[in-house]
Every structure is written in structure tokens, then in C-alpha cells.
Amino acid sequence: MLALLAPAGAALAKDPPEKSEQYSAVSQYREMLPGAGGSSVLGGDDKPQQVRPLPEQTTERVYADGGEDARVLEEIATSSNYAAPQKALPAVPKAKRAVPKSSAPHDEGGREADLPPVRRGADTAVFAAAGGIFSDTGGGRFGFLAFVLMAITAACVAGAVFRRRDARRD
After folding, report:
1. Nearest residue to 47 (alpha-carbon basis) of 66, 65, 32
2. Does residue 21 contact residue 27 with C-beta atoms inside 8 Å?
3. What does the alpha-carbon distance between residue 100 and residue 23 come to, in Å, rounded to a whole number?
4. What are the residue boundaries of the structural domains of the chain, listed by start?
5. Residue 146 confidence (pLDDT)
6. Series of mean pLDDT values for 10-residue runs along the chain (170 residues)
7. Do 83 and 28 touch, CB atoms closer than 8 A?
8. What pairs with residue 41 in β-bridges?
9. What pLDDT score was predicted for residue 62?
10. CA 110 to chain centre
11. Closest C-alpha to 90, from 151, 150, 21
């Protein structure tokens, strides 16, 4: 009964992010429907197809590794009808190092080894995320709900213990 009175988590959700112009698959996705006269774009948006060629090195890799599907893969990767970007997208920044350079493992020659960092102990992000559950959802409502749930559980356990004692006395 108490669960029905608690607000739904989705009702407390923030607004969705603004539509991004950087992510072409999100911004330009259009579904193609097959028809007797050829494929057409769902929603009637029949813009003329644009094709931006792939870089030469990428084209070589597609044809080297694509096998029979290489031509189709190139078409999907270049055609605006399949949401391929028609303008250069911003470069994605490289990920930061998980381990500082000074503590990274080294090979016999003193060079940095290409090994993943060894984790010792629990990751601090786990604890931060667990704490975020109580602080980020509904201004502490989750903490109150957890407290009420624990109190109800304790009352049920106490009731079961007292019943068991009464049953032994009879």
C-alpha cells in the first residue's frame, strides 16, 4: 500500500537533453521503406541523396575486410539516406589515462608496457554511485523510503519471533 503512495521515479526525471548536431546517427537517422518504385524515406522527406566519399585509407580497409559486402558497407557509410555524415564531425578527445605515467608498468627497456592498469581494492566510483542514489533521487525521498521499508521489515521479523515464542508456550 505504501509503495502506491510513493512517487514514480520517472516523474522525478529531468528533461531530455537538447538534440545534438554532433551525433549524425541521432540527428539524421531516417528509416528507408522498400517499395515497388525503390526505397523511400519514412515520413515523406525525400531529400536528394548526398554521398561524401570515405577517406582513402578507410575505403581500402572496407574492401580488404568487407568481403562480398564491401560495396554495400561503403554505400551505407557514405550515403545520406543511411544517416552517414555529410560534413566533418568534431574529433572525439582521447580518453584520459587510468594510471599516471610514473606508476604505469614498464617493460625491460624502461618503456611503458601496453598493459591494462591493475586495480587494487574497490573502485571509488562504486561508492560514489551508491551514495548518489540517496542524494540525487528526489531530494532524499529514496532515503526516507528505504528507512520505512527497513522499519516494516523489522516489525515483520519481530512479529514472527513473538508468534514463535507464543506457539512454544502452548
Report:
1. 32
2. yes
3. 31
4. 21-88, 123-170
5. 83
6. 55 60 54 73 64 90 92 86 76 68 56 58 62 57 83 95 80
7. yes
8. 32
9. 92
10. 37
11. 21
